[in-house]
Amino acid sequence: TLAANVFALTAAFNALKVADTFRLLEEGLNKVGAAAGRNLPYVADRLKDITGSAVSTRDAMEAVALGTASGFSQEQIEGLAKVARGASTALGRDMTDALSRLTRGAAKLEPEILDELGIMVRLDDATTTYAANLGKTADQLSIVERRQAFTNAILEQGIKKYGGLTDSIEPSAYDQL
Fold this sequence. Notes:
75% of the residues lie in helices and 0% in strands. With 177 residues, the chain is mainly alpha-helical.
């Protein structure tokens, strides 16, 4: 009886904790969006639409929060969601995992995170190309510019590889559920 009660209390505590964390995420997204003059909850809703509702509101909000904090534009965040949908479909991967990998990989400048999605972007190549377009050398790029270069290369390669799959195949009904 004691073990059952402890289990029930632990489950209730964890449910309340998760709900409060979601509330804080939503509140933070609203405040950051208002400060930046952007409607970030709308962007999160767009991610859900792009993924065919295969990611939860929470997962979409987390991707938007990380993308915004990393300096991504709405178009880049939405582009990552499109690539995630295509990669998920092509590789039979969980869409939430694909979106998380793309967003984290781009934000952290870590190509290793993207490898499992078939996206093989070299940071050096991406920054060299981006810098040349700006009339700079790769060493002259700021961290924000390096992140933009890497994200642009991810989007370019991802759309080439998976762009045709994004709208042609519906996501798993179980993911949508």
